[in-house]
Amino acid sequence: MSSDADGLDGGISPRENTHLVGHHDAAAFLAKAYRSGRIHHAVLIEGPEGIGKATLAFHFAQHVLTYPDAAKAPERLAVPDPASAVFRQVAAGASHDLMHLTRPVDEKTGRVKSAITVDEVRRAGRFLQQTSGTGGWRIVIVDPADDLHRSAANAILKMLEEPPARAMFLVVSHAPGRLLPTIRSRCLTLRLTQLPPDDVVAGLRRLPVGAGLDPGKLEKVAQRSEGSLRRAIMMLNYGGLDLIDALEKLLQAGKDASRREMHVLAATLAAKEREEAYGFFCDYALVRLGDMAHDSGVQGMTARAARQAEAAERAARDLQTAQAYNLDRKQTMLSLLGVLIEAAQPWP
Asked: What Pfam family is a match for this entry (predicted)?
């Protein structure tokens, strides 16, 4: 998955974003820890996708690079200054002291690879061995660590175990449970939570995609965004609200759901020009299945919750397989819709 709002029409890349939506306590913690001189060399910033983890990582990185002497750093996390040399270099991807480790582009196909490769991690290793251009810190943002190939994860682990002097890792993760336990154990964990709807609305209003939109529509998007600004942006850009309404109609119909409507929705998502909508729907479907399992558990229906959790895991595996082997997307969507409808049934 992409980093928070990175590459989305109407959004702002985390490296260029001067405004952090929410997460004030986490920002204050990082600023205080750095100023005290006791900042951990590796911070794992974890939480749901699209809530601002990468933006917080870039803000903190710029704070550290702007104030290399921790004792002279401000007590609060500094707001990135677009007029500063540090900001301009980071925004342009040209900083000699900061490396953004993410999935690389395949030179042959021009498409982003499916994983962060070991070659990229080795490049980060060479970067860390160099002397800082300012004599300060050298920072690597791993974004997200969930995309690390197994060999790349092992290579990162070695760096975390024996970090060079004045080297810092900011590790972003949407699903820390999928990381190597040894990587998690080498990091200080900073958990971020979903944004409240008011913060999502405020964030959208600051972005091109949300400027001038009807307040009622912004509120509706925020309520369905699961606290993710990225998901809210995708709803506005790629017809996400209509897709969700179509899915909910099918779930309410249950076993009586129209096969024709299922095929129409699957065909819409499978169209070549709907790449982003397809990705959005896959993510939303997995979240929806997880919410079903959670709600059933809260209501004491443990057997149903277990089946729904199993359905969520099966759907995630099927989607990964479909992506890996480039399987027919319409059939993949029909299968996913079948799993969702079955999971939503009022089992005994």
From this structure: DNA_pol3_delta2
Where does residue 214 rank: exposed (0-12), middle (13-18), buried (19+ CB within 10 A)?
exposed
Q: 297: domain range? A: 238-343
d(CA 86, CA 84): 5
The answer to whether 27 and 65 are in contact (CB under 8 A) is no
Together in a domain, 178 and 42: yes
Nearest to 188 by CA among 48, 46, 22: 46
- Is residue 104 one of the residues assigned to a domain? yes
User: How far apart are alpha carbons 312 and 37 in whole angstroms?
Assistant: 43
Q: What distance in Å separates the CA atoms of residue 138 and residue 343, rounded to the nearest whole number?
A: 48
Per residue, the 3-state secondary structure of 276-342, as one string, reads HHHHHHHHHHHHHHHHHHHHHHHCCCHHHHHHHHHHHHHHHHHHHHHHHCCCCHHHHHHHHHHHHHH
Distances (CA, A) of 276 to 2, 236, 295: 11, 12, 28
Residue-level pLDDT at 2:
40
Chain centroid, CA 252 distance in Å: 30
Query: Would residue 228 count as lying in a domain?
Result: no
- What global pTM score does this model have? 0.87
Q: Both 168 and 29 in a single domain? A: yes
For the stretch 300-313, pLDDT in tens is 999 999 999 999 99
